[in-house]
Each structure stands twice: as structure tokens, then as C-alpha cells.
From TrEMBL:
<keyword id="KW-0805">Transcription regulation</keyword>
<dbReference type="InterPro" id="IPR018060">
    <property type="entry name" value="HTH_AraC"/>
</dbReference>
<dbReference type="InterPro" id="IPR003313">
    <property type="entry name" value="AraC-bd"/>
</dbReference>
<protein>
    <submittedName>
        <fullName>Transcriptional regulator</fullName>
    </submittedName>
</protein>
<dbReference type="GO" id="GO:0003700">
    <property type="term" value="F:DNA-binding transcription factor activity"/>
</dbReference>
<dbReference type="InterPro" id="IPR014710">
    <property type="entry name" value="RmlC-like_jellyroll"/>
</dbReference>
<dbReference type="Pfam" id="PF12833">
    <property type="entry name" value="HTH_18"/>
</dbReference>
<dbReference type="InterPro" id="IPR037923">
    <property type="entry name" value="HTH-like"/>
</dbReference>
<keyword id="KW-0238">DNA-binding</keyword>
<dbReference type="InterPro" id="IPR009057">
    <property type="entry name" value="Homeodomain-like_sf"/>
</dbReference>
<keyword id="KW-0804">Transcription</keyword>
<feature type="domain" description="HTH araC/xylS-type">
    <location>
        <begin position="191"/>
        <end position="289"/>
    </location>
</feature>
<dbReference type="GO" id="GO:0043565">
    <property type="term" value="F:sequence-specific DNA binding"/>
</dbReference>
<dbReference type="Pfam" id="PF02311">
    <property type="entry name" value="AraC_binding"/>
</dbReference>
Length: 291
């Protein structure tokens, strides 16, 4: 079965021997990777990119965002995206694995940052020229360090990135994400649920399965999801299935029946009804309209 291409850090890294981290100025990065940045693809790492110049669009999981000076984007592993630019952008980009960050900050998790802890939080932050200039200097510091061969290289890079993420989280939290009044315990449960759904959504569709995995009752899990997102547990499971089906419908050459089977639906007619209920179109209509 043909799948969406998944890029890894080794494909970008050339001469610098850090296998779990990559950095570059944006203009150079796009020039080196001009054959595929405009095509839909996935990454198996966390990505952060800052734009100081340029304009265009960035599509992430079928949502389109405008690119402009001051834009910062965050991507988690597995998300599908591509770029389209109207003029040459400038800025900085870095990627890293989860271990790269968490091995240096053993008591911290990437999911502590709001732009990484829920699929429901927006992957973009737009900042004013004065704020973006201060952050750009930190991105440049990371990039300069990456291309130097000095002692404690990984430690310094990870420390600067931590400062960048803290500053970005402070700016991000000034915008609307999941309500600040929501219980911290509920947020932690939501994070855990999204991770479990990512692992099992193709084979497990019942709320009871996920409640059991979290050692809570289905009723309590539903209450948590209602409070945090205004949805049911089943809605969250189905949303993940529909997202993956959209990725495969648009970005692969597989038949709709094959896609249905790969997502755990042996009955294509039933899958089509579920898809239409969520998107207001059939899978075939969606495929044709997207083209």
C-alpha cells in the first residue's frame, strides 16, 4: 500500500554529525530541498520555523495558514504539510527528535508546551516585528552553534531551544488555546488519550477501550473530553480516523476501498457514511474537490 512519504532528519543533515537535530537558515534549507518542500509529506520529528521575510501559504493537515513576517509554525511527528511561497522567505528552521529534548531535560516533556500538547491547538503563532527580532537572534544562535565544532555542543543547543520554547509558550498562552480554567488533571488525561488514539485508532473505535487504557470509566472520560473540547470520546476517535483518511485519499494512489480497509472498515459503504457525516461530502467527492 502506497503511503505518504515520511522524512527523517538524516535526509536533511549533511556534514554535521548530530543525528537527532538539524538547523539551517530558511533560505538555504529551502534551496537545498526545493524538490519536495512544496509536495505533501510527513516528518518523524518536531519542527519549528520562524519567518522574518516572505509570504505564501502553509497547509497543515488540510488547514491553510498564511505565511508572513513574524509567523512561527510548530509541527509534531506525523502531521502532513507543504509550503507554497509567493516570494523568497527568510528566517530559520530547526527540527529535533523527542529524545533530543527530553534526554537533556529529564523532568520536562515537550507536551508541556501548548503548541505541542494537543492536536486541537493551532500550529501557528504570529508576532510583532519587535518580538520576532528578539526571537530571531536566538534561532540564529542555535544555527551558529549547530555549524560549529565545539565542546558541549548538544547541551548548548538544547539549552537555547528550551529558552526559545519557553518564550514562545509565553506568547502563545496570550492567545486562546484550551481554556486556562480547565483542570490540569483533565489536560493531562487529554494528552494521554490523544497519544493512545494515535496508536490504536485504526483497530479500536470504542470509547470503552480507551477508558480502560487510561484506567478510568467511559463516563468519566467522556466528561473530561466534553469539558476540555466540547466533544465526546467517540468524536475524538472518529476525528482522528477522518484526518488520516483525508491524508490517504489526497496524498496516495490507493483505492478508496483499500483506504477504508486500512483504517479498520471492511464495509466501504459504512466508512463512506461515517466520512460524509463528519465532512458533509463522500470520500470520492472530497478527493475530486481537493484536486
Amino acid at each position: 500500500m502506497k503511503i505518504i512519504p515520511i522524512l527523517n532528519i538524516q535526509q536533511f543533515e549533511q556534514e554535521v554529525p548530530i543525528s537527532d537535530f538539524y538547523s539551517n537558515d530558511l533560505k538555504s534549507h529551502l534551496e537545498k530541498n526545493k524538490d519536495f518542500f512544496h509536495k505533501p509529506h510527513k516528518h518523524d520529528f518536531f519542527l519549528c520555523v520562524l519567518f522574518s521575510k516572505g509570504s505564501g501559504i502553509h497547509e497543515i493537515d488540510f488547514n491553510t495558514y498564511n505565511v508572513k513576517p513574524g509567523s512561527i509554525f510548530f509541527l509534531k511527528p506525523g502531521q502532513t504539510h507543504y509550503w507554497k511561497f509567493y516570494n523568497t522567505p527568510e528566517g530559520y528552521i530547526f527540527f529535533h527528535t523527542q529524545d533530543f529534548y527530553e534526554l537533556h531535560f529529564s523532568k520536562s516533556k515537550l507536551e508541556q508546551f501548548p503548541f505541542y500538547y494537543s492536536h486541537k491547538n493551532t500550529p501557528i503563532l504570529n508576532l510583532s516585528p519587535s518580538k520576532i527580532k528578539l526571537l530571531e537572534s536566538k534561532f540564529k544562535e542555535v544555527n551558529d552553534e549547530y555549524y560549529e565544532d565545539l565542546p558541549y555542543k548538544k547541551q548548548k543547543i538544547s539549552s537555547i531551544i528550551n529558552v526559545i520554547y519557553i518564550n514562545l509558550a509565553r506568547h502563545y498562552n496570550s492567545f486562546k488555546t484550551i481554556e486556562n480554567t480547565t483542570s490540569a488533571t483533565y489536560i493531562e488525561t487529554l494528552r494521554a488519550l490523544e497519544q493512545i488514539i494515535d496508536n490504536y485508532y485504526k483497530t479500536e473505535k470504542s470509547a470503552k477501550f480507551y477508558a480502560n487504557a487510561l484506567n478510568i470509566t467511559p463516563k468519566h472520560l467522556n466528561r473530561i473530553i466534553k469539558t476540555t473540547l466540547g466533544k465526546t470520546t467517540t468524536d475524538l476517535i472518529t476525528d482522528r480516523v477522518i484526518l488520516e483518511s483525508k491524508r490517504l485519499i489526497v496524498h496516495s494512489n490507493n483505492s478508496l476501498f483499500t483506504i477504508s480497509e486500512s483504517l479498520g472498515y471492511q464495509d466501504y459503504a459504512y466508512f463512506s457514511r461515517v466520512f460524509k457525516l463528519k465532512t458533509k461530502t463522500t470520500p470520492l467527492e472530497f478527493k475530486n474537490s481537493y484536486k
